[in-house]
Write a structure and sequence with these properties.
The structure is a single chain. The protein is globular. A hairpin with a 2-residue loop joins strand 6 and strand 7. Helix 6 crosses helix 7 and helix 7 crosses helix 9. It has 342 residues and is an alpha+beta fold. The strands form 2 sheets. It has a 7-stranded antiparallel beta sheet with strand order 1-2-3-10-5-8-11, sandwiched between helices. A 4-stranded antiparallel beta sheet has the order 4-9-6-7, with no helix packed on it. The chain folds into 3 domains: 211 residues, Sandwich (Jelly Rolls); 62 residues, no CATH class; 52 residues, Orthogonal Bundle (Arc Repressor Mutant, subunit A).
């Protein structure tokens, strides 16, 4: 197990890679934190400039054997192209919050170029492939990459993923919850403390679950499986999903439970019970979390003030909003300030 962090164009330059780490892990760390950051593949003019091509932080953490989290929050001081081999099989999950860099694995281009909103992709590797990343000067990139190696997949009961075709890919727009998780994992204020590793693993697993849900064989089958797990009939589970999406839209923010039930055409106590079965929480608990997520997205995307965010989330006091936000996400909403843009 290891964790490595490197901050560029800064007096901080910290690296901790135990010699007991597996050779594969040490090589992966060296690739991500040395060759890319110190300019091992720079042209002559860049070498003459001292090799300073990045400002920001890259970090790589082995959350569990075969389960890696790579965080990127950097500004490129010049345009550059990075290339290095990915030697292992397994699954790579890429979630980009910001940046216009272009990524390619082997012959597969990842659809993560600049545009509105976050983007994500899952790629399966069965053999070595070349990773290529092109970026523009003065661009900022904020991104997570989760690597799941075959031993971890086998241990998690997901060994069938090892049999997927080489470079097969699923792409999607991450949910608001996934975006907030990514923000938390990238937030410097959320790093540290005795339970830091466990918190990272729990949050990263939520992203893995959302990513693997994109591989469901068919929507109907996924609905039936989820309904069985929640002891609900498929129609009841589908209604709970419709209610969740409607709550997330903001249309129910001013309604009582009775008004929500009337809109859904269902008895209030029945609706509450079925929603709790499907998602493990009460309707208004989800609505409160949804409003906090929307406030977080507005801070990041629009740069709204804490007072405006508090109002959007349904709190009269910014202090109460900040307390609720920290209780849900583990970091203060002010940590999202200054992250507007794409």
């Amino acid at each position: 197990m290891f964790a490595a962090t490197k901050t560029f164009a800064s007096i901080v330059n910290r690296r901790e890679v135990p010699l007991s780490s597996p050779p594969q892990a040490q090589a992966l760390t060296a690739t991500l934190l040395d060759r890319l950051g110190d300019g091992g593949a720079l042209d002559a003019s860049e070498q003459a400039a001292g090799g300073r091509v990045l400002h920001g932080t890259l970090s790589l953490t082995e959350l569990r054997e075969g389960f890696f989290l790579h965080r990127t929050d950097v500004t490129y001081l010049r345009g550059m192209t990075s290339r290095f081999p990915l030697s292992g099989s397994g699954v790579r999950i890429v979630l980009k919050l910001q940046g216009g860099g272009r990524l390619r694995i082997g012959e597969q281009a990842l659809p993560l170029a600049a545009g509105p909103g976050a983007r994500a992709a899952l790629v399966t590797l069965c053999e070595p492939a070349l990773y290529e990343h092109r970026c523009r000067a003065s661009s900022r990139e904020r991104m997570l990459v989760i690597t799941l190696l075959p031993p971890w997949l086998e241990q998690a009961g997901l060994g069938d993923l090892n049999a997927r075709p080489h470079l097969s890919m699923a792409a999607w727009a991450p949910s608001p919850r996934a975006v907030c998780i990514a923000e938390q994992l990238l937030s410097p204020g959320a790093q540290g403390g005795p339970l830091h590793g466990l918190l990272q693993e729990r949050l990263a697993l939520e992203l893995v679950i959302e990513a693997l849900a994109q591989l469901a064989p068919a929507p109907g089958a996924a609905v039936v499986a989820a309904a069985e797990m929640a002891s609900l009939r498929p129609a009841e589970y589908q209604r709970a999903c419709r209610l969740r999406d409607w709550l997330d839209s903001g249309a129910a923010d001013a309604l009582s439970l009775g008004g929500i039930a009337q809109h859904m055409g269902c008895n209030a106590s029945t609706l509450q019970s079925q929603f709790r079965q499907a998602f493990g929480k009460a309707i208004f608990d989800h609505l409160r979390e949804s409003r906090l997520r929307r406030a977080a997205n507005a801070i990041t995307a629009q740069g709204i003030t804490m007072a405006q965010a508090a109002e959007l989330a349904g709190y009269r006091s910014p202090a109460n909003f900040s307390t609720a936000f920290r209780r849900l996400y583990g970091f203060a909403p002010k940590n999202l300030l200054g992250r507007k843009g794409g």
